[in-house]
Amino acid sequence: xxxxxxxxxxxxxxxxxxxxxxxxxxxxxxxxxxxxxxxxxxxxxxxxxxxxxxxxxxxxxxxxxxxxxxxxxxxxxxxxxxxxxxxxxxxxxxxxxxxxxxxxxxxxxxxxxxxxxxxxxxxxxxxxxxxxxxxxxxxxxxxxxxxxxxxxxxxxxxxxxxxxxxxxxxxxxxxxxxxxxxxxxxxxxxxxxxxxxxxxxxxxxxxxxxxxxxxxxxxxxxxxxxxxxxxxxx
Length: 234
Prior knowledge:
The chain has helices spanning 3-9, 15-23, 114-121, 141-149, 187-194, 225-232, and strands at 27-29, 32-33, 46-48, 51-53, 61-66, 95-96, 105-111, 129-136, 152-154, 157-158, 163-169, 173-180, 199-207, 210-211, 220-222. It has 234 residues and is of the alpha+beta class.
């Protein structure tokens, strides 16, 4: 098993974040500094910051209705509240699957199942994620069609086609439902900035067909076996 996958399954961090831990020399295999691409055998002793990691993994899966005002990371060097603060005290070492911005709320999964996390966040999977979005003022058909078709949010970075449905509008705001199959950093806000609109609310409501199911803002629960099976087979 590759070292970054092993760390992800231990709930240390995502595969991408594990690569950074390896690069900074915090990970060792049998007392020697680990390198990207190293494999881990069942007989190997793996440590992070000198702490030995077990080879036995019990997978845990949580669903959080993330509120605004917290970051989707395991820790924060600025001392801000993280999504980990909402987990029960007996939760294992899990990490957030992808990220929601500090000011974005809604559905966030947390797990130590590295394979599932990778599948749900990989652009190749094209798993639909649904959001409620509110922008200031009205929005024209031309602006909507530009967003639907994909816009260049940064030099050389163009968003994929997406589904946008207007739910409610008046002179002061427009509320929409947006379905994306990718997850670029601050993607929704940047998409609308390009067409001249300011986003003042984003809430992720679904991943595939999995919903928040009446979960209150800031509340968390374990996923059912049926939900876990569904996500693994998306």
